[in-house]
Automatic annotation (TrEMBL):
Pfam families: p450 (PF00067). Keywords: Heme, Iron, Membrane, Metal-binding, Monooxygenase, Oxidoreductase, Transmembrane, Transmembrane helix. GO terms for biological process: mycotoxin biosynthetic process. Coiled coil: none annotated. Belongs to the cytochrome P450 family. Its cofactor is heme. Heme binds at residue 444. Signal peptide: none annotated. One of its GO terms (molecular function) is oxidoreductase activity, acting on paired donors, with incorporation or reduction of molecular oxygen. CDD domains: CYP60B-like. This is Cytochrome P450. The chain crosses the membrane at residues 17-39. PROSITE patterns: CYTOCHROME_P450.
Amino acid sequence: MNASTSGNVQPADGTSFWVYILVGIVCAIGSIVCYNIYFHPLAKFPGPKSYAASAIPVALAQLGGRFHLFTQAAHEKYGSIVRISPNELSIISAGAWDDVYARRLKNPPLVRDPTFFNDMLVDPRTLTMADDTNHIRLRKSMNSAFSARALAEQEPILKENVDLFMDKLEERAQQGLETDLRSWYNYATFDLIGDFAFGESFRCLESSQYHEWVQFVLDHFYVATLLQVVHRFRPLNKLLAMLLPASLIEKKEAHHRMALDKVRRRVQRDTKRLDFISYMLKTLDTGTITLDELENQASIIILAGSETTAVALTFATYFLLVNPQIMDRLLEELHSNFENEGQIDVLSINKLNYLQAVIQETLRIAPPITNGFPRQVPPEGAMIDGHFVPGGSVVNISHWSAYRSASHFSKPNEFCPERWLGDSLFEGDTKDAFQPFSVGPRNCIGKKFANDSMKMTLAKTVWRFKMKLAINTEEWLRDMPSFVSLHQPPLLVSLEPRKPPSSD
């Protein structure tokens, strides 16, 4: 008796087998999508169904450098709290800042999201990656280096670097050369942070070109984005990470090696020079931090303190140049307080209200870090701005979306420094929604250093030079930097030395 006459079912041929597999995969994907949209613990929160279905839309937005616009569009349609991926909420209400980033009554702050702060991003011994217990210890070891007293003692380093920046721009102005301030601000900020962190400049200003490490840093940001995207697709994240170009991963590692090499040279150098490392070395003797940990903080200082400051300065200059009445008012404030450029110092610039307002408005309308730093809700869940968010969910505050929301700010897309000076037109603004350096125990340790650097550089640039844009402003604004990256259009200007205030 053969199979054809036995009445038994015949084995499926090869084609049928793969059809069954394909049908099974489709059914599995369909079940996951259906669960994510209708039955997931976050299903009650508003947002596009395509965002709820899978992480693909948010991943594509990140890869395209348009995550901030992706999130903003969702908030404009759905409100202050939006589901932007199956397990992630974006929140822009002012009350969410403390709930997400600060200590909550007797509870610790929410932990960092392991997708964003993944174990392939930076060394786990750094301040960025340390758990809460070690973070407190490491932060304590670094606080003295960033204190107001320490920065005052280190002011000669800031002044020396900014003055060199001025002299280099002066040379270009005298030669009638167009200048890409985007690049030159990068030269200045990398040189400055290198001098503060390692006791030696990268000499970008002297050579009028990027040090090789600058590209390592910028590549690191790009690799970080790729790693964050692949980690959205657990448990396939490790496999997907293996598909990333080996050259990019090597550049990230090269950045780390170079940082270690420079900080080790600085530690071994017998010098009484005051810089970040000199203050951290004092805590080394107390046992607060190990030498290995000290060395690993250097790469974080470079990443956090250079490119972001350059981006802010680029935008501040751009907005001043396209708003001549604002430029005139800033120049008037400078001339009212100083008789010559040499009088401009950190103590005096921190008394200039309009300069401070220009910096604040720049950070509001064009934040260098647009999308914030996500956190994970504990297993028991948490109340965030009046909403119960289930355990395991990821929550984040998008700086860009919060700062450009009409629910928080009048004329949200206009550059208006007056909003920070008590102008009645902006008295309804929700100023607490603006937190460019974050809040809580993991807020930016270098806030004062960044502010001092930006104010000093911008004040001296405006004091010394008349500037005129040499670009199509509409095109530049349309292609404005969407995240920290050098792969953006240059900010070309023509420079002309100003006459002394008395004859200007």
